[in-house]
Amino acid sequence: MLAEDKIETAKVNLALHSDFNCEDAFRIFELNGRGFINQCDLKCGLNLLGIYPTDHEVRLLMKRFDLQNQGFLNYADFFDMLVPYEKDYRNMVENRLPNSCCPCRCPDIFCCDTLCELKNVFNLIIDLENDINNNRRLFGTLRLKFREIFRLLDCPNRGFFSNNDLIIYLQKNGIFISNKLADLLFIRLDRSRNGNVFYKDIEDELQTLY
């Protein structure tokens, strides 16, 4: 979770750059105004930024941010990838106007410092997703059962658990983290973004990507 916090801090630093807006960033990856980014687009855009992930790492990014399992990232998915979860920062970035003259796939729309921050966010996310996937393989080796993990979190047997349920479970097991870290963990698990985590969310998160 400390890595998630580090990424969130990097996102804040990016959001504070006055020339950064998510629409122009999206256009670095989007092809011909289609309104979505597929796996090939994502890799091409990262290459334009000077980041050269493997195909496996690109698939990990898609797994993490393609919340609806559509096979592509829409603008909302991309926004979540780069913008802090705190409302004030999200509003700040959302209210910035894009450059109307920005051509598709043009990283030079941002100043050098902003591009460095943007690259830093992507690199941190790629590193984290690699680490998490390695841990998923460990879980598989230990033969941990997804339904058993979910049952422990869903103590009232409602078929889902809330942020508060997650905090209570962690505290019962001697894990005391800040509210911010708990929120970051819950946001990661809550793929439907409805305030509750269902079994399918846990299964998606813990399933190893080979």
Would you write up a description of this structure?
With 210 residues, the protein is mostly helical. It has 2 domains: 138 residues, EF-hand (Recoverin, domain 1, Orthogonal Bundle), CATH 1.10.238.10; 63 residues, Orthogonal Bundle (Recoverin, domain 1), CATH 1.10.238. It has 11 helices and 4 strands. The chain has a two-stranded antiparallel ribbon. Helix 1 runs antiparallel to helix 7. The longest helix is centred in the middle third of the chain and has 30 residues. The protein is globular. The two termini are 23 Å apart.
3D shape: globular
Q: Tell me the distance between the termini.
A: 23 Å
Superfamily (CATH H level) name of the largest domain: EF-hand
Helical run tally: 11
Query: Which secondary-structure class do the elements indicate?
Result: mainly alpha
Low-confidence stretches: none
Element order: H for helix, E for strand: HHEHHEHHHHEHHEH
> What is the number of E strands?
4
Number of domains: 2
How much of the polypeptide forms β-strand, as a percent range?
under 5%
Biggest β-sheet strands, sense, barrel: 2 strands, antiparallel
What is the second-level CATH architecture of the largest domain? Orthogonal Bundle
- Looking across the biggest beta sheet, what order are the strands in? 1-2
Q: CATH top level of the largest domain?
A: Mainly Alpha
